[in-house]
Design a protein that fits this description.
The complex is a heterodimer of chains A (533) and B (336). Chain A contains 19 helices and 19 strands. Chain A is an alpha+beta fold and 533 residues long. Chain A has 2 domains: 241 residues, Periplasmic binding protein-like II (D-Maltodextrin-Binding Protein, domain 2, 3-Layer(aba) Sandwich), CATH 3.40.190; 213 residues, Dipeptide-binding Protein, Domain 3 (Dipeptide-binding Protein, domain 3). Chain A starts with a helix and ends with a strand. With 336 residues, chain B is mostly helical. In chain B, strand 1 and strand 2 form a beta hairpin. The chains are: A alpha+beta (533), B mainly alpha (336). At the A-B interface, helix 1, helix 2, strand 10, helix 10 and helix 16 of A face helix 2, helix 3, helix 5, helix 7 and helix 13 of B.
Chain lengths: 533, 336
């Protein structure tokens, strides 16, 4: 009896609760049904684009963004002072990172010693809040980058000394020294111009989860677990975008992104696995854009650790890499042979010095010359998270075994791998790299310059360092390129790495999408896209 | 019973304290540096150091611990760097998703497995019994990721019956009014039929997928405990006094056989809450499992700690609830 009472009380209570709930929101279900939950909403609205992404992003703050999804979110909502131009190569649109175009800055002047840039802002441009885009906002935005956690190093890379407001529409940026990468760097998402007044009114944390820019899209929703939704900023100063709504769906499982695209449930999907390209290409409703990216993959050998301190041993490893097998077997042809430490898309690239091919006899010969005729054993650290790395490592291991070299593979989780890598003590590993700034100086400065902050394998060559330093202050582009070419040739010959491949950036999309362009930073700009439905 | 409940609640406190200390130490002792993960691989050492300072990770461990406890006492469970949101808001959006998935899978397991177990036990050694045993074996063995991918391939890709494996509700629909966070329940409560249909359709495949293991365990558990019970004197007595077979089985035998099954279900609930990672990943289900895995991979301490704490509380709560339900099912069990 007691039990019955309890049960009936519970039932009565839950009914009451249900009653309250529905009466508290009497209009909501109906309005839900009217706005979204009717049968044919899509037909009435023009061009909604749904894109499948793998990761949900970590921040909306331009100064802190440093992952693909966050960068994409930022570029949809913000503008920068300048931007990259577009060139056409083999029928595909590709960003030209050397061709800097005006954006919020209408024009700029450079002092004779290349250290002072004076930007004239476009008149009448407003943020989405209605506040004007003025010199104050620019200075504020740059200062935010300087004091940010992730972006501050780019401020240093740009060599910015000070940002001065001259008048409401003029900003003067002084550099510590002439820097040919300056404009390229400030065209990045990091240097987006934020709406100072809104940020100051809302508090410092506002930008982490909200956007306050002048960009082509207004952020409706961002939930890293499910989706981000943007709607067109109809009063965008460059003209309203042709897409009225962009939904980014976060779908971690790569095979699902492929299925969703194939079935037409998303209109575009990024990070398509190479093995699925062929099957998607057979779908006549889809186009697969597979562009050579700047993302390189290399087999690094610690130049301080025996026997990799011996250049002949490193060269021998270069001759033992099964290049073609990696490209066709692991990457299904969606990659390109890497022939310099610098990506072939980067201005100033040269394959001079690249004489390596899969030749085990030559490898053995070099090992014998180095005094390792019987081979040797070494430790190799494999960071998890990338399927192809493991396949590569196993194939390389098998080839090395043929020349008497034993490669012990130790697998580490990504977080541990990055931590270990930073100790400069790993004997060998595979790693990828994409330079944010498409420039050999930036690239080599991190990776192979003696004091480079990501030179985890202690490569040090006085001549390379000298060439790099000279090029860094050289203002003549042609002379600079010549210096970088020399440096690349030395590096390739000395073989601190074995070059594996340059990844293709694979984006699958509906045939009805036009305006897609590939950017070396791999971030998709939604503004130029259009989608007929 | 009130005194008993209170006693159990008090006992939870040292257990939770222990969990707080252990998770705190474990998450920091394990390799992986959150500052490096946050800075990205192109950041130079100075940037990493700056982030480390900003996050307070340069301070000694005991100071970090006390500031964490201080935060906890204020009800602040921290900020998740890898999602850019506060842990509280992340948990608020993701916990209900996992609870909904787990509840649905347990419900499916109960609806399928208990009748199967009963049939298998009452028709022991019959063909039905053998079939049920083979299926339980398969259910316990089949890897969830394989099953999930197969489900998606067959029901979404080929047959087109299931919706796209993309979250909890169709992308073009608004989620139902937020009451409990469980979409199915919320749409029933708010009378949103369209949302109900869509959220049920999205829930079905992952829930079935997740329930297979539980189903197998519960079916076998019910079968064996039923077998123990049907041989006992009170069942013979019930038969002897001329009760219908259905009354003997459901009113006398089953009720007595349910206790072990209930224990298993309680444990399974806790297990599924954290163990739904694979299902969540495959179906892009925005739940807690995937969130915690990502946090671990990103060496993001706050969400790991918060999740462990919350699930410990939940686990203790479920155990307590199960113990109390024993009393309802079996009046011989008394609490002092």
């Amino acid at each position: 009896m007691k039990r019955f009472k309890l049960m009936s009380t519970l039932v009565a209570f839950s009914i009451m609760l249900a009653g309250c709930a529905s009466s508290a929101n009497p209009t909501n279900p109906a309005s839900t049904a009217a706005t979204g939950n009717t049968g044919t909403p899509a037909a009435a609205v023009k061009s909604n684009l749904t894109v499948a992404y793998s990761e949900g992003g970590t921040t909306l703050d331009p100064a802190e963004a440093n992952d693909l999804t966050s960068d994409t979110l930022v570029l949809a909502a913000y503008d920068q002072l300048v931007t990259y131009g577009i060139k056409t190569e083999d029928g595909a649109n590709i960003a030209n990172t050397e061709d800097i175009q005006p954006m919020l800055a209408e024009s700029w002047e450079v002092s004779d010693d290349n250290t002072v840039y004076t930007f004239k802002l476009k008149q009448g441009v407003t943020f989405q809040s209605g506040n004007p885009v003025n010199a104050e906002a620019v200075a504020y935005s740059f200062d935010r980058v300087a004091s940010s956690s992730s972006g501050s190093f780019l401020y240093g890379m740009a060599a910015i000394k000070s940002v001065k407001v001259v008048d409401d529409s003029t900003v003067e940026i002084t550099l510590t020294n002439a820097n040919h990468n300056f404009l390229q760097i400030i065209a990045m998402y990091t240097f987006s111009i934020v709406d100072q007044k809104t940020v100051e009114a809302q508090g410092a944390d506002y930008l982490k989860t909200n956007a306050a820019g002048s960009g082509p899209f207004t952020l409706e929703k961002w939930d890293p677990a499910t989706e981000a939704v943007f709607t067109a900023n109809e009063s965008y100063w460059q003209g309203a975008p042709s897409l009225s709504k962009v939904t980014m769906k976060f779908t971690k499982e790569a095979s699902n992104r492929v299925l969703l695209l194939d079935k037409g449930d998303v209109d575009m999907a990024i990070e398509i696995p190479p093995k699925d390209v062929a099957s998607l290409q057979s779908n006549t409703d889809l186009t697969v854009a597979s562009n050579a990216s700047n993302r390189i993959l290399f087999f690094a050998m610690n130049n301080n650790v025996k026997p990799f301190d011996n250049v002949k041993v490193r060269q021998a490893i270069n001759y033992a890499i099964p290049y073609d097998e990696l490209l066709s077997g692991v990457m299904y042809g969606q990659a390109k042979q890497m022939k310099s430490a610098v990506a072939s898309n980067t201005p100033g690239f040269t394959d001079a010095g690249f004489v390596y091919e899969h030749n085990l006899d030559k490898a053995k010969e070099l090992l014998a010359e180095a005094g390792y005729a019987d081979g040797f054993t070494f430790d190799f650290t494999l960071g998890s998270g990338f399927d192809d790395w493991e396949d590569d490592a196993v194939l390389i291991q098998a080839e090395l075994a043929k020349i008497g070299v034993t490669m012990n593979i130790n697998k580490l989780a990504r977080a541990q791998f990055l931590e270990q890598q930073k100790t400069n003590n790993l004997t060998s590993y595979i790693s990828k790299w994409t330079s944010f700034v498409n420039d050999p100086g930036y690239h080599l400065g991190f990776l192979l310059y003696g004091k480079g902050s990501s030179n985890y394998i202690n490569y040090s060559n006085a001549e390379v360092d000298k060439l790099w330093e000279e090029a860094n202050v050289e203002t003549d582009a042609a002379k600079r390129t010549a210096l970088y070419e020399q440096a690349q040739e030395i590096i390739t010959t000395e073989a601190p790495w074995a070059y594996l491949y340059e990844y293709n950036r694979i984006v699958g999309m509906s045939n009805k999408i036009s305006g897609y362009a590939f950017y070396p930073d791999e971030v998709i700009r939604f503004y130029p896209l259009s989608f007929e439905q | 019973m009130f005194a008993y409940t209170l006693k159990r609640l008090v006992q939870m406190v040292p257990a939770l304290l222990g969990i707080i200390v252990i998770t705190f130490i474990l998450s920091r002792v394990l390799p992986g540096d959150p500052a490096i993960m946050l800075a990205g691989e192109q950041a130079p050492e100075e940037t990493v150091n700056k982030i480390r300072q900003d996050m307070g990770l340069d301070k000694p461990l005991y100071i970090q611990f006390f500031s964490y406890i201080g935060q906890l006492l204020k009800g602040d469970i921290g900020y998740a760097y890898h999602t850019g949101h506060s842990v509280a808001s992340d948990l608020a959006s993701r916990f209900p998703a996992t609870v909904e998935l787990t509840l649905a899978s347990i419900l499916i397991a109960i609806l399928v497995a208990i009748p199967v177990g009963i049939v298998a036990a009452t028709k022991k050694e019959s063909i039905l019994d053998h079939i049920s045993r083979v299926f339980s074996l398969i259910g316990a063995c089949v890897p969830i990721f394989w099953l999930g991918l197969m489900f998606i391939y067959i029901f979404y890709s080929i047959l087109g019956w299931a919706p796209a494996p993309m979250g909890r509700i169709s992308g073009d629909l608004n989620p139902p009014v937020h009451l409990t966070g469980l979409y199915v329940l919320d749409s029933i409560l708010s009378g949103d039929i369209i949302a109900l249909k869509s959220s049920l359709a999205h829930l079905l495949l992952p829930a079935i997928c997740l329930s297979t293991g539980t189903m197998a365990i519960v079916a076998r558990m019910t079968r064996s405990s039923m077998l123990e019970v049907v041989d006992q004197d009170f069942v013979r007595t019930a038969r002897a006094k001329g009760l219908r077979e259905s009354a003997v089985v459901y009113k006398h035998a089953l009720v007595n056989a349910l206790i072990p099954t209930l224990t298993v279900l309680g444990l399974q609930f806790g297990f599924l809450m954290g163990g739904a990672v694979i299902t969540e990943t495959i179906f892009s289900w925005p739940g807690i499992g995937g969130y915690v895995t990502d946090s671990i991979l990103a060496a993001d301490y706050a969400p790991i700690q918060a999740f462990t704490l919350v699930s410990a509380v939940l686990y203790c709560g479920i155990n307590l609830a199960v113990d109390l339900i024993y009393g309802f099912i079996d009046p011989r069990i008394r609490y002092e």
